[in-house]
Each structure stands twice: as C-alpha cells, then as structure tokens.
Design goal:
16 helices; 83% helix; Growth Hormone, Chain: A; mainly alpha; 397 residues; globular
Length: 397
C-alpha cells in the first residue's frame, strides 16, 4: 500500500511538472507579440492571427487528444506532445514569415491542448479521495508556469533586446519533464458510474459547461495576452514594467490558485465559482472607471487574476461530480475553452488599433457578464435534475 501511494504521488508530481511547463509555453505569446510582429514585418492586427492559429490547434488537440486518452497510454501521449512543445518553442522566435509562424504556433497549440486534456482527465482517473484540492493544485502549477514565463522574457528582453533565448530556455526545460513522464505508468480510464449520476444533465450539462469555459477562459486569455500591449498603448507602463504587469496578473492568478486549494477543502465548487465571477466583474469595473490611472490598472490586474484563478479547476470539479469524465468529455470541455481563448484575443486585435485600447476592458466586461449568466443556468439545471431525481425515487418507493 505504501509503495502504491508513493507511486501515485510521483505520478501526480509528474502532471504538476507538465502543467508548469504548459503554463510557461502558453504565457509567452502575449509578451512576445510586438517582437514576433517585428520579426515577420506585420502590424498588431496582422500578428493577432497567431491567436487563431494557436487556439485552433489547441481545440484540435483538445478534441482529438481527449479521444486518444481513452484508447492509448496517457503518459506516452503526453510525452510526445511535450516534445512537440519543445520543438515549437525553439522554432517560434526565428521564423521570418507570418504564414509559416502561424503553422508553427498551430502545431504548438495542438500539443498544448493534448497535454491540457491529459492533466485533467488522468488526474481524475487516479481516483483521489477528494478531487477538488488536487484539481486546484494542478492548475496552480499552470499559473506558476505562466507567472515565471513573462519574467524570463522580460529579463531576456532587457539584456538582449529580443525574445529568442527566453523561448529556447523554456524549450530546454520541457525535455526532462517529457522523459520523466515517459518512465511513469499511466492510470486507467475510470469505470462508468451509476445510472443516476450519468443521467443528470447528460446532454445539456456538458454543453453549458463548455460554453461557460468558453467565456471565462476567453476573459482570462484576453487579459494575459493584451495587458502588455494595452498598458504600453495607454502609456501606463514601459516595455519592462509592462512585462512585470503581465507577471503580476499571472502572479495573482497563481496565488488565487493556491488559496483555492484550501478553499476547496471548506466550500463546494458552486460557491467558489460564484465568488470568482463576481470578483472578476468588479475588477474590470475598476479599469472602466479609472482607465488612465497606473494605480487602478495594477489593482485591477491583481484582483482580476486572483478572481479568475479558481474558475477552471472549479468548473472541472463540479462537472466531475455530476458527469462520467472520459477523455472525450474532457476534450469537449477544452474545445470550448480553447475557442474562447482564441476568439476574444483575436477579436480585440481586430479593433484595438482602429477603435482604440478601450475595446480591451469593454470586451472583458461582456465575457464576464456572460459567465455569470451561464453559471446561473448550470446551477439551475443541477437543481432541477436533483429535484426530478428525488421525485422519481419517491414515486418508486
């Protein structure tokens, strides 16, 4: 038994490590955007096509990867995808042609999406006694990687004037993690639960959860991708301090994930999700009320990152309590989140130069307001299903 517990702990540690690196690779695109645009000789509007390529790849990786986890060894699949991530990070900063860069970022997105599905579903398949704290811890490590990555890029930019060595350093860190996971045994797919649990919102609940993930991941990705450029354009920061502002967002996001681990031990996922979306909306209101204040943008950034932190793991935890979590179902959820992470940053890029930087907080407000509506719909569905199930049992007795 002790050997089995140790083996499970090592396996969980491997997924945590993979998620640190996933966070690092995902968070590089926003701070690198002006430098990548310069490399290929295009505008911010043109370079925003990278968001489409990246997230389209992420969606494909999430969908196909989810089904692949149901059929082949999960750790072997994650190993291959991590190695593709390393190759993509090596190539990205040296590509001089926009179309080719979009292809590379697309492949990088496929690998990242597959790793993302794997971390979520394989952790559930380990069958821990309480999934909430571990799921929050997994995504804490994503936030930790996303915090470290802009700091690395900021220092590389400061000393070299470019991003190349920052990308290459992150690529070098990915390879040992891939080797480590390759050597670990993979957990097996979870058995189908009882009929009542499967029946609760079997068709509608996954759709609502996927749309909810679409909206709040859109709000998260857009902020991490555009706060650097927004603060520069509004003259609220220079290049180095804008990088620090991006790191502050991911830093508060990481701290929020840490606090969410302890919160998940005390409260259920529904309460955690409700507090998160309300806190995020109040944070964006700060940006809208004081758009030219350096103090306001720092307060809003810290509060927004902290508020968003528990949304994704809380959503997966809530879904796992009411649905049979296969790789395919998890992949479906991540398709929604990937589409949101692609659509909103791209949409902001289409209007940022022509309309002005104020489109940034405006679109964020719409996304968070939509999240509140979807969360209410999910909770209402679960309540109705619970009431219907009680009525059926009473009738049967």
């Amino acid at each position: 038994m002790e050997k089995q517990i140790r083996s499970i702990a090592v396996l969980i540690g491997g997924y945590f490590l993979a998620y640190i690196l996933l966070g690092m690779t995902t968070a590089t695109l926003g701070p690198a955007l002006p430098y990548l645009a310069r490399n290929v000789g295009t505008s911010l509007r043109g370079i925003s096509s990278l968001f489409i390529g990246h997230r389209l790849g992420y969606m494909i990786g999430s969908f196909l990867g989810g089904h692949m986890y149901d059929r082949i060894s999960g750790n072997r699949l994650m190993t291959g995808m991590l190695l593709i991530m390393a190759a993509g990070m090596i190539a990205t900063p040296v590509i001089p042609i926009l179309a080719l860069l979009v292809v590379i970022v697309f492949l990088l997105g496929i690998a990242e999406g597959t790793v993302d599905v794997g971390g979520n579903v394989l952790l559930v398949w380990i069958k821990p006694p309480k999934i909430g704290p571990l799921m929050n811890a997994l995504h804490l490590f994503f936030g930790l990687g996303a915090l470290i990555s802009p700091l690395i890029l900021a220092q590389v930019i400061r000393h070299t004037g470019g991003i190349r060595w920052g990308y290459w350093l992150i690529a070098a860190l990915v390879v040992p993690a891939a080797v480590f996971l390759f050597l670990q045994p993979s957990p097996r797919a979870a058995a189908a639960p009882d009929t009542d649990r499967v029946a609760v919102g079997r068709y509608l609940l996954p759709v609502l959860v996927s749309v909810f993930l679409f909206l709040h991941v859109a709000a998260e990705s857009a902020y991490g991708s555009w706060i650097y450029t927004y603060s520069l354009t509004k003259q609220l920061a220079d290049e180095v301090s804008a990088g620090y502002l991006t790191s502050a967002f991911w830093g508060s996001f990481t701290f929020g994930r840490l606090m969410a681990i302890f919160l998940a031990l005390k409260v259920n996922a529904k309460i955690q999700l409700g507090g998160s979306v309300v806190g995020a909306l109040l944070s964006i209101v700060i940006l809208l009320l004081w758009p030219d204040s350096v103090t306001a943008i720092w307060i809003a950034t810290l509060a927004y990152g902290f508020s968003l932190a528990g949304l994704f793991p809380g959503t997966i935890t809530l879904a796992s309590e009411h649905l049979h979590m296969t790789g395919g179902v998890t992949g479906f959820f991540l398709v929604g989140s990937s589409f949101g992470a692609m659509a909103l940053p791209w949409l902001i890029g289409q209007f940022f130069e022509s309309v002005g930087p104020q489109v940034f907080p405006a679109f964020l407000t719409a996304a968070i307001a939509g999240s509140i509506v979807l969360l209410a719909a999910i909770l209402l569905l679960l309540r109705r299903c619970r009431t219907k199930k009680k009525s059926t049992r009473m009738s049967a007795s």
